[in-house]
Amino acid sequence: MFKAIVIDKTGDRQQCAIRDVDEAELPGGDVTLRVEYSTVNYKDGLAITGKAPVVRKFPMVPGIDGAGVVTASAHSGCKAGDKVVLNGWGVGETHWGCLAQQARLKGDWLIALPAEFSTRQAMAIGTAGYTAMLCVRALEKHGVTPAQGEIVVTGAAGGVGSVAIALLAKLGYRVVASTGRLSAADYLKALGAAEVIDRATLSAPGKPLARERWAGAVDTVGSHTLANVCASMRYRGVVAACGLAAGMDFPASVAPFILRGVTLAGIDSVMAPRALRVEAWSRLARDLEAARLDTITREINLAAAIPAAAELLAGKVRGRLVVNVNA
Questions:
Q1: DSSP summary character for residue 113
Q2: Residue 318 pLDDT > 90, yes or no?
Q3: Roughly what angle, to the nearest 10 degrees, separates helices 159-170 and 119-141?
Q4: Nearest to residue 66, comparing CAs of 25, 34, 93, 114?
Q5: How high is the pLDDT of residue 308?
Q6: Cα(289)–Cα(93) distance, rounded to whole angstroms?
Q7: pLDDT grade, residue 219 (50/70/90)?
Q8: Which of 99, 105, 242, 325 is most buried (CB neighbours < 10 A)?
Q9: What is the CATH number of domain 126-266?
Q10: Nearest to 100 by CA among 24, 26, 8, 13
Q11: 164 closest CA partner among 321, 323, 319, 322
């Protein structure tokens, strides 16, 4: 038996609670994992609170991220005793996730934990940090260099934004953090932001084209914010879009793309190919200062993950929540 957060549904009513689960209830998979740490991501928040139909079948164990030790494996790429990381792949939506003390998963979904990180540090990074690295990689792939100008990061105090700032600053970019929590300015500057701006400057309906400012952008917000970021990009600037905290709409025009040659690069972390994941984690091991992780991380236990989900959706969580599933 092991403990897990379990989401179930009776009629139209969803319930979420910690309960004891028999190992025999675990879903199919060729690797069994003893989970050490997980996280509460935005998608986990939606799943646990039921604010959006993230969960596709019930009962469901949430937790799109996990890090731990393989206890049994029928997969050629894993063996008992290996430390591994999981991000995405529909886990916590269609397949039981890692807000639990055990998980059964497909070996193809797992990445060997880089030696530079502990399992706790891996979850301080989690999908948020891995997504941030995919965004940085997209800017680099499209030729954005520190010499070309400022990079704006929206939703800066969140998980993706926090790690993106730390990575970009380490790589020599001048980073401007956009946030609705100006009280977090010192925190953002400690991560490497050179300037902090109020999200209100980007979140209202704007013009098709605005004054050129940004050479690159990491956008976690969507909606009018993404439209305004695109409108204020410099010639041949690049926007890496990875979130929808303000909505799925994109009330923009084609003007930035056909008049300034702006590139809008979509970032998908859920189904990204394995080779891209391995590269991203390798880059994180090289370019993310481990000391920064303590700055952005708060550790909680499994029971606290349920109320934390609502706090996360309400914008009350700064940085990353790491869940010690055995505490």
A1: P
A2: no
A3: 70
A4: 34
A5: 95
A6: 31
A7: very high
A8: 99
A9: 3.40.50.720
A10: 26
A11: 319
Residues with Cβ < 8 Å from 307, sequence gap 6 or more?
Answer: none
- CA 14, CA 76: separation in Å to the nearest integer? 38
Phi, psi angle pair for 262, to nearest 5°: -70, 140
242: Cβ–Cβ under 8 A, 6 or more apart, which residues? 131, 134, 135, 160, 218, 219, 220, 266, 267, 269
Q: Identify the CATH homologous superfamily for domain 2-113+291-324.
A: Medium-chain alcohol dehydrogenases, catalytic domain (3.90.180.10)
Cα 141 versus chain centre, distance: 20
Report pLDDT for 31: 98
Q: Which of 170, 136, 176 is nearest to 156 (CA)?
A: 176
Show me where the domains of the chain are located: 2-113+291-324, 126-266
Classify the phi-psi angles of 77: left when phi > 0, otherwise alpha if psi is within -120 to 50, otherwise beta: alpha
